[in-house]
User: Fold this.
Amino acid sequence: MHYITLPSELVGFTNHSSEIVKTVSNRKMYLLHGELKAGAADSLCPQCGGSMHIHDRCEVNLRHLCFGDKLSCLRFTKLRYYCPRCGHSHMQGVPFQAKGHRISCELLTFTRDLLAYGFTNKQVAYITGLGRNTVKDIDLERLKEKYTVDGERLIQPERQARFLGIDEFKLHDGHKYAVIIIDMETGHILWLAHGKKKASVYSFIEHVGKEWMEGVEAVACDMNSDFQEAFEDRCPHIQTVFDFV
Ligand SMILES: [Zn+2]
Assistant:
């Protein structure tokens, strides 16, 4: 049996013993048994400030980084606390667990880096030993953080656009429409909205700000569209350019 002891950056975790097991997909995995130290904040009731009691404990398995070709998994016990004064209960915090996933923060970082370097979801799933759905979720989170604010709206344009293009596209189900605003000189999408045409233009203008809009010289759109009206409303200096026929 080969043992490894983690030189751990995993705050509060002490690795007692390790064993090599096989996963369902027949990969070798270090099962790293250990203990998670409770912090002072864990037993303090966030509701009433009272002192909480340990109510029960449960086993946690958190996938962690790979060591060579072997996967790893941290196994420890987590405490559930109960406040006798107000009835509040919560689980002990795990500072190194990635939010929303049963993996360590380190494995999340590694996975996101692999995705950022252009590995496909399938390759990343193999390298990390994570399920395809988990990789897909992590990739989606990564893209949302990169390209949007609050997970919905696209981030501010990187450069001043002089010439915008705006159009409405039918989405796959045929009922929903999406308004897309692009920088005609770079092709980059600046805005994607699912609302009404005019409202989409107004929210875009609000998002980029008046000063930025002043740098825009022209916008290409369909003739007599709500888009034209909306731009004329808010930014009369912008020239409207219709279909190039
Ligand atoms: Zn309480």
Remarks:
- The first strand starts at residue 13 and ends at 22.
